[in-house]
Automatic annotation (TrEMBL):
The lineage of its organism: Bacteria, Pseudomonadati, Pseudomonadota, Alphaproteobacteria, Rhodobacterales. GO terms for molecular function: DNA binding; DNA-binding transcription factor activity. Signal peptide: none annotated. The keyword Metal-binding does not apply. This is FadR family transcriptional regulator. Pfam families: FCD, GntR. The keyword Amino-acid biosynthesis does not apply. PROSITE patterns: HTH_GNTR (PS50949).
Length: 229
């Protein structure tokens, strides 16, 4: 009887956790809150939360990286050679940037060709949120959002899925800590003008300019982090 009770309690926590993730607007590659925060939000014990996390990890809904956190998995990418946890341990930041340079300019090109007017408006809004971010953490979150909104605007579920897979690995790859000299990006931060150029090319329906602008943007980011890749 006691074992049945424990099983029921664990199932309840799994259900709570599933609902929390579903209602939280999480995307593949997003990191869940810490165990401490989830314990408070879900009003559960640490032991039962960990059992629920184990269940969702076994199902492939989440994956965990020691020292990095718990991440939302992309559909159908949690087994075999596409296992994100293994990839994140095998890919270097430079290799990751090369992959971005291969994929994201093509995504920008497709967005210029196929984005709806509503999608372009959404993209401009996401750009503005990044520009207006009050601190570096918020900027990085809004910058991530800008790139995903751009991928969504291709109106191509396969390209969006490829982007999500790449982005999920990007978030888990071990990056060296970047030292910031200010609390927020300066108004002259180079990414702002680069985002503007990407959006302008997409709004003008110029696929080559959009592709070139994205390549220039990622090249600029890469140069700041690594030099040439």
């Amino acid at each position: 009887m006691l074992m049945n009770s424990v099983t029921v309690d664990t199932d309840d926590v799994v259900s709570k956790l599933r609902s929390y993730i579903a209602e939280g607007g999480y995307k593949p590659g997003d990191r869940l809150e810490s165990e401490r925060d989830l314990i408070v939000r879900l009003d559960v014990t640490r032991a039962r939360l960990r059992k629920a996390l184990d269940t969702l990890e076994h199902e492939g809904a989440i994956w965990r990286h020691v020292g990095k956190g718990t991440f939302i998995a992309s559909p159908n990418v949690t087994s075999g050679p596409s296992n994100l946890k293994l990839l994140s341990q095998q890919v270097t930041p430079v290799q990751l940037m090369r992959a971005r340079l291969s994929l994201e300019p093509a995504i920008a090109r497709e967005t210029a060709l196929h984005a709806s007017e509503e999608a372009v408006r959404h993209l401009k809004h996401s750009r503005d949120l990044a520009t207006e971010a009050p601190n570096w953490d918020e900027y990085e979150a809004q910058d991530d959002n800008f790139h995903r909104v751009l991928a969504e605007a291709t109106d191509n579920v396969l390209l969006l899925s490829l982007f999500d897979h790449l982005n999920a690995v990007r978030r888990a790859v071990a990056w060296n800590m970047v030292v910031r000299s200010s609390d927020r990006p300066s108004r002259t931060h180079s990414s702002f003008a680069e985002h503007d150029a990407i959006v302008a090319a997409i709004e003008a329906r110029d696929p080559k300019a959009a592709q070139d602008a994205m390549r220039a943007h990622l090249g600029s980011v890469s140069a700041r982090l690594f030099g040439e890749v």
